[in-house]
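Dear support,

I submitted the protein below through the web form. The confirmation email said the job was done, but the results page showed an empty box. After a refresh the structure appeared. I'm attaching both so you can tell me whether what I see now is the final result or a partial one.
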Amino acid sequence: MEPLVIDAKGMHYRELNQIIRDKVAEGYRHFILHNVNGQRYIGAGIMEDVFIEIHGVAGNDLGVFMKRGTIIVYDDAQDGVGNTMEGTKIVVHGMAGDVCGYGMRGGKLHILRDIGYRTGIHMKTYKDMVPVIIVGGKAGDFFGEYMAGGILILLNLWDDDDRPIVGSYLGTGMHGGVMYIRGEVDPHNLGKEVGIKELDEKDFLLLKKLLKEYCEDFKDYGLSVDEIMKSPFTKLVPVSTRPYGKIYAY
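What the results page shows now:
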């Protein structure tokens, strides 16, 4: 079946999403959306293995609750990308907003450039699913807040401003998973629940594997795994598995 091409110019987000849901029910699996301008909830709750290409700026909660499929955004995306998704892969050829990857239980989120605040909050590993977020630029405050599982990678590939690689309160409340920051991290920015560890051979193998796919997704930008890996990474892990245990009555 040929891809379904939709011109979303001036279209209300409800109308756009209803068209997509109806066409998925009819058997369509490949969608090309043009002139997207902030329409939210694209791909929300889709269970089928769809492929959605978005030309324009995707609105809030892109891919929310999705369990399968791939979304590619050829521009920026707003807040909440990958909210509570499982097996989906979302690739953003630009920046993304705040609270991306909230509660992710699986899937991959690849962002070419910067990302906002509270990325990966409450992200968790679920059964054999390990969520992965790779950000090519910088991140705001509360990166990995309350993180319970999964992998966060921050690369700082586009060091074109004076902001730090990552903001304050890094890993606050973190009690699972692992973060890899390409570059040095100011210990004063760390939440008290997170610690810095040396990378071992398994870490380097994992990074190389994940970054190979990331670079393939953004091959038009001349990214090289070997070049990225030449810079040192800081590994962050939780130092407590139950940081709020004292507040419970049992």
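Response: this is the final, complete result; the empty box was a page-load delay. The mean pLDDT is 94.
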